[in-house]
Amino acid sequence: MRGGNRLLIIILAIGLSVWGAPCSGRGFSPRADTLFAQGVRSYKTGEFLAALGNFQKILQELPPNQRSSAAQLMVAKALYKLGEYEQAIQAAQRLLEAYPKSRYSPYAVYLIAGCRFRQWKYIDAVEEYAKVVGGRGDSKLRRRAQEIIDRIVETKLSPSQVEELRRKGLIGAREPEVGPVSPGVAIVGLLCPVSGPDSTFGKDLLDGVKLAFGDGESSSGLSLVVKDTESSAIGAVKAAQKLAEQENLLALVGPVFSLPTVAAAAVANCAKVPLLAPTANQDRLTTIGEYIFQLNTTPRIQAERMAEYAARDLGFKALAVLAPLNARGQQMAEGFVQRIEKLGGKVVAQDWYTTGTTDFGTQLQKVREAGLELLPPDSLESILAMQDTTETLAPVTTIEGFLVVGTPQEIALIAPQIAFWRIETQLLGGGGWNSPKLLQLGREYVQGAIFVGEYFEQNDSPALRRFVDQFRQRYGRNPTKVAAFGYDAAYLILQAWQKGARTREQLRQALDGTWQFQGASGEISFRQRTNQSVFLLTIHKDGIVKIGLLR
Q1: Cβ atoms within 10 A of the Cβ of 378, count?
Q2: pLDDT band at residue 386 using 50, 70 and 90 as cut-offs
Q3: From 3.90.1300.10, 1.10.357.10, 1.25.40.10, 1.10.3720.10, which CATH number describes the 6-167 domain?
Q4: Which of 3, 293, 330, 480 has the largest CB neighbor count within 10 A?
Q5: For residues 172 and 163, what is the distance between their CA atoms, to the nearest angstrom?
Q6: Which CATH architecture has domain 174-297+460-522?
Q7: Contact call for residues 9 and 49 (beta carbons, < 8 A)
Q8: Among residues 503, 486, 419, 494, which one has the least CA distance to residue 277?
Q9: Model pLDDT for residues 229-282, shown as the tens digit of each residue
């Protein structure tokens, strides 16, 4: 780094030590917003020194304000980008001291860990990353921290260092085994995040599977063995490899999330071991190979079932789609459009939005214009003439169905704006609609919406009621979706075993024939080893109501 730049950084960093303690209250400063925006722009374009100057002005020249804690984090990040790791650590620690309850605190710890890694202080880095994993940050940040820990353990540390970290409880504990494995007894392996940021989900999965198996080795001659994936793809691969080495392994169940499941599925298929993925919704997961089975429906399948219902049952011909620019949104939009067009309908308007969007006017104007183009010329002229003489928009009724994809919070923003633009249509959706949060946020605007979901806890099926009763009795709490899917995965294996499937190939063939199995999670029907069944739901008054099943 050039001497002039380094001197400027040092001068700016000195400001960290002389900046006074924050006041108990913080005011609002328009100038802080302006400086922060300028700093972010510089940061994004790689002008880290300029960014550092803007963020420091917020801290040094203005009283504590709405941007103070964020600016403190960005000072640390800019210093990190400039290679000034010790100063970056000091800036991050300043945030932790001044704003201990800030939502940016986990990111400050994550940055400190990154600095230690860059300084080749790998043990210190693991200790900091472990704080993130066990902290209150968002799940994605905690998973990233766990994955980095795994890489450090795998590539940077000696066996003695790894053992020392295990003794301190900073990396995953030894995986538990459920039930003794007798010689010659067939094993079902559970790949489960016992440790790491996903351990809560891992406990739900483990409890669901254990409920299906009873206590350890079942009377049928199957034994359950649990291996800890440590909430990471690397951990899932290692656990799957370890189990696959055992000749008496019959099948694998798990893990929970898609990325570790993809990793474990590759190992399982190479070893020709059937793997049942309970909750992963990765698109085309089963194309890894013929030994992979997926119980949870994918966004693409949800969209295809919704399209079939809209075209065949409702008779819709002209439809629109609005989806987020992410993997789930793209899969749902693509699946819906392709299936609608195959069934003779047409998506006359399709648009996208990015995470954080609050004003959907641009997208909805395009949908409205597409609907107007479907009108006969004389009707269109009269509508346009009316809109020239009044501030009220004429309703557009030519778009029969409108698929809106998003989180409950995003849908709650979109639905009232659809009403504002007078697009009078049947709202359609996927799993994001299946949430009580949506009822709270968008109640009057989402009434009558029709959507599909992979799980419906108000389902009145005997299988679900029996599972819920048994789960409550055994564990003293209500089961989750993860527990229900785990229970069904284990039950399918037990059922096949009881019917004579004694080898991996026999089990694979038995599972491949699964159709309309009534499980705790709902109906399971495999086509190309992926579950095709979804609940058809609607919003009625203050609740979500089941219409039926689609497969």
Answers
A1: 8
A2: low
A3: 1.25.40.10
A4: 293
A5: 11
A6: 3-Layer(aba) Sandwich (3.40)
A7: yes
A8: 486
A9: 988 999 999 999 999 998 899 999 989 999 999 999 999 999 999 999 999 999
